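Incident log, structure service

09:12 report received: a user says their structure output differs between two submissions of the same chain.
09:20 pulled the input from the user's history:
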Amino acid sequence: MTGKTANKCRIAVVQQPPVFLNLDASVERACGYIHDTVQNGADVVVFPETWLPGYPIWLDAAPGAGLWDHPPAKSLFRLMHENCPTVDDAAIVALRSATVEAGVYVVMGMQERDGGTLYNSILYIDPEKGEFSVHRKLMPTYTERLVWGRGDGSTLEVLETPFGNLGGLICWEHWMPLARAAMHARGETMHVAQWPWVKDMHQVACRHYAFEGTCFVVAAGGILSRAEMLEGIDSAGAGTEARSLLEEIPGADANLLLQGGSAVIGPDGQYVIKPVYGDRTTVFADIDPGAVAEARLTLDTDGHYSRPDVFELSVDTRPRRNVDFT
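09:34 re-ran on a clean worker, output below:
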């Protein structure tokens, strides 16, 4: 085995809104975007954080989001819970089928339902057989702990592709130094960094990750207006109680609650495609995966620029369950 990878890869970052909290309509929209990117020669298609069925924006913007036993908060969570898929849900089967038909690798941000708990997850879909793997966010950030559980080390994996290893982390996981070290040890060529939207400090984290990991970083940021948020839940059949919590979010309907910022960064930390803010678009970038080898001449934090005699990291990759039936 020579270790060679394909010398060309076209990445597409879908910076378009879902149908907010409407799973079936969002999957239908996602399948359309996937097929559209194929017409433009995409090899890898990336969606932002929890694109399915939408990022719970009210956690940071609605005054009543964290009130104990608050009926609108409970009603809205119920609606979201009902529209979050399991990995074997019919909606995910449809998404996998679209991926196989299109012949591209798909990286989807989703709220994954497992039993009574939701997780912030990355879904990787291989177009060869429609096989998939999942990464769950290790630590929900701040108010996110109201709605999401924590992932475990069993999902710190990468997907092998003709363009090199494809991995990813979600949002503030990029400020977990040991999570970064674990993923660097997986030998990523391409790293997906998913965010609600990619603010200035998030760009800093992405560029740092690209340089430290000597890999390409695909920063995927969502875009959503207040009107699109309300139209989405209306289409999902939300009652007035759930809607009332979202109506507390201040601003005009045209205001962007999520502003995009999608970008692609090279292993030298420089932008291949600079951040795109405020546009509903698909961002395309052509990369040379072989450039990763050039970057590792001077820096390989899991190889010649490491000191395993001084520092040691142990990663527990066992799935953690509360009850194990044997």
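09:41 both user submissions now match this output. Likely a transient worker issue. Closing.
09:42 reviewer note: The longest strand covers residues 105-114. The radius of gyration is 19 Å.
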